[in-house]
């Protein structure tokens, strides 16, 4: 309650006789605010003067900065390590002048290996060229050179490895590995060529050069559900409402510049991952807007959540456009199991358009409001249904993803 003495006598007289009056919200002060000046004046508390000790929190990056750190494709030159050369020498010691050939073999060069790692979120940490460790040369006294160890490149889950037009690997599970470049074999020392008819070979062979390849790494976000919608439809707001992900929300188009994945938790530790990808505009398949770069993130999702803004004049046209763009990008993409989320039903204009869209779509439509949380339970239930159907289909196909 606000103490009466806070208002001046002039205010009090002006307000008398007006009837019931409630103070405007900006005049309402919280008790902590009222006490603050007194505490400062008296300065009796050491604690108030002490520097506030807050636990260090991770600095939140703006969406623009995140975009800079988020790299979803990379061209990489990988080269395996060269094999070490074989040695050519002869053993000799007092009283054993001709001890025979004793040149050791060279060590093998190290492979360059791509490994899927859950900790890595984008390809920004991947460099443009990698060289595997070389093998050591062989040496005297039959000593073989040390092998070059493997060089691991950590990549995010859902990385596709392409060479030219061909996809050579798909690293979608933690720990998946792909040998990007083989190390060269080590050369042979002259000891290797010792034979009955040749007791003193001088021949030794050089190590093989490592394999060299140019690979294209492409990241496709791996999530169960993908949110597809025009900019400002409320995709990020929805993801915030149903998961603990915190994508930026603002009233201008293209607020989201990189995909965000949120995890929706259900009872029994069941989890469904949902990806919020940047908004899609008409002509996205021709690379308009941020389109093409992010349509590939949708390609990987098992089922889709079309988000339409019910407050715009013709929401069904938005849905048609979205499906058209997906279909143009990849045939059959819009046919995947999906549900249409009619967002912003808290607005009167949206409520007015709801019956018409409901008549067109029937059960596929889930009207809701990310802002007020209205009908979010229906979305969570449908999401679980879609997920369960997907898991069943996967099991029926012997753990193979169903063909769309
Ligand atoms: N009234 C109302 N406003 C909403 C609702 N959901 C989102 N908004 C508003 O719509 C605007 C856009 O929301 P976002 O969540 O950023 O939309 P988006 O689809 O992620 O947009 P992009 O990232 O640009 O593709 C914001 O101003 C939100 O506050 C809703 O249910 N009701
Ligand atoms: Mg967004």
UniProtKB/TrEMBL annotation:
Biased composition (Gly residues): 100-111
Domain of life: Eukaryota
Domain Obg: start-end pairs: 68-222
Keyword Iron: no
Domain OBG-type G: 223-388
GO cellular component, as recorded: mitochondrial inner membrane
UniProt keyword list: GTP-binding, Membrane, Mitochondrion, Mitochondrion inner membrane, Nucleotide-binding, Ribosome biogenesis
Region (Disordered): 88-111
Membrane-topology annotation of the record: Peripheral membrane protein
One annotated GO biological process: ribosome biogenesis
Signal peptide positions (record): none
Annotated compartments: Mitochondrion inner membrane
GO molecular function terms attached to this record: GTP binding; GTPase activity; magnesium ion binding
Entry-linked NCBIfam families: Obg_CgtA, PRK12299.1, small_GTP
Similarity comment: family membership: Belongs to the TRAFAC class OBG-HflX-like GTPase superfamily. OBG GTPase family.
Subunit structure: Associates with the mitochondrial ribosome large subunit; the association occurs in a GTP-dependent manner.
Described function: Plays a role in the regulation of the mitochondrial ribosome assembly and of translational activity. Displays GTPase activity. Involved in the ribosome maturation process.
UniProt protein name: Mitochondrial ribosome-associated GTPase 2
Taxonomic source organism: Trichechus manatus latirostris
């Amino acid at each position: 309650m606000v103490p009466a003495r806070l208002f001046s006598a002039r205010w009090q007289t002006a307000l008398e006789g007006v009837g019931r009056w409630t103070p405007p919200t900006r005049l309402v002060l919280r008790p902590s605010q009222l006490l603050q000046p007194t505490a400062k004046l008296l300065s009796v508390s050491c604690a108030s003067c002490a520097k506030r000790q807050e636990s260090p929190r991770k600095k939140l990056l703006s969406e623009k900065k995140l975009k800079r750190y988020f790299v979803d494709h990379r061209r990489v030159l990988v080269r395996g390590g060269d094999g070490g050369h074989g040695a050519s020498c002869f053993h000799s010691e007092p009283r054993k002048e001709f001890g025979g050939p004793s040149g050791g073999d060279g060590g093998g060069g190290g492979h360059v290996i791509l490994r899927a790692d859950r900790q890595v979120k984008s390809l920004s940490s991947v460099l443009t060229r990698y060289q595997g460790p070389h093998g050591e040369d062989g040496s005297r006294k039959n000593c073989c050179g040390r092998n070059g160890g493997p060089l691991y490149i950590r990549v995010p889950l859902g990385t596709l490895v392409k060479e030219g037009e061909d996809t050579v690997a798909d690293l979608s599970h933690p720990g998946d590995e792909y040998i990007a470049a083989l190390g060269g074999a080590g050369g042979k020392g002259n000891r290797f060529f010792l034979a009955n008819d040749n007791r003193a070979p001088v021949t030794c062979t050089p190590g093989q050069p490592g394999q060299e390849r140019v690979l294209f790494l492409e990241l496709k976000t791996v999530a169960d559900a993908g949110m597809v919608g025009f900019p400002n439809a409320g995709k990020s707001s929805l993801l915030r409402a149903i998961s603990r992900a915190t994508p930026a929300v603002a009233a201008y188009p293209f607020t989201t510049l990189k995909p965000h994945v949120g995890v929706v938790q259900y009872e029994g530790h069941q989890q469904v991952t949902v990806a919020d990808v940047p908004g899609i505009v008409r002509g996205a398949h021709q690379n308009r807007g941020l389109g093409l770069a992010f349509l590939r993130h949708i390609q990987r999702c098992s089922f889709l959540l079309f988000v339409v803004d019910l407050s715009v004049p013709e929401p069904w046209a938005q849905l048609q456009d979205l499906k058209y763009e997906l279909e143009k990008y990849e045939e059959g993409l819009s046919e995947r199991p999906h549900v249409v989320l009619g967002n912003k039903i808290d607005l009167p204009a949206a409520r007015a358009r709801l019956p018409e869209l409901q008549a067109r779509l029937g059960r596929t439509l889930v009207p809701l409001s990310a802002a007020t949380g209205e009908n979010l339970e229906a979305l969570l239930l449908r999401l679980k249904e879609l997920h369960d159907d997907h898991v069943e289909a996967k099991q029926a196909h012997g753990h193979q993803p169903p063909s769309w």
